[in-house]
């Protein structure tokens, strides 16, 4: 069982802007976020994901690649440069990151039932807010 973590999509103005920021790191092979502390349970996170919170709901995930000391007293959270849409579930805002057990993680939407990548971000956000996706 892989442990995940949640993080606010700070600075994102929409799901599309978050996706563009993450995917802009594709040439590097990974995106990096800075955190002050190394998660104590980082070994359990192998194969886990970082779940993004936007507008008080988990909206997607990025697979975790690991953690790395950045040489300046902080750590990088290394993620794959892709955003995978998940079934939206409500989640309050918080500072930093929080652990997310696999049993509590939302399911991916990539089962072919809805082409969420083709939906406008505003529509997807409204459908998620209503609990329809």
TrEMBL record:
UniProt protein name: Lysophospholipase
Source organism: Blastomonas aquatica
């Amino acid at each position: 069982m892989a442990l995940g973590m949640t993080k606010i999509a700070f600075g994102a103005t929409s799901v599309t802007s978050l996706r563009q920021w993450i995917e802009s790191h594709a040439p590097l092979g990974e995106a990096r976020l800075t955190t002050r502390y190394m998660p104590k349970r980082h070994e359990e996170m192998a194969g886990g994901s970082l779940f993004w919170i936007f507008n008080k709901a988990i909206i997607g995930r990025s697979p975790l690649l690991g953690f790395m000391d950045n040489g300046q007293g902080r750590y990088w959270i290394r993620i794959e440069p892709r955003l995978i849409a998940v079934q939206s579930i409500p989640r309050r805002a918080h500072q930093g990151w929080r652990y997310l057990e696999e049993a509590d993680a939302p399911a991916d939407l990539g089962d072919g039932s809805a082409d969420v990548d083709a939906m406008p971000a505003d529509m997807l956000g409204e459908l998620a807010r209503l609990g329809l996706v």
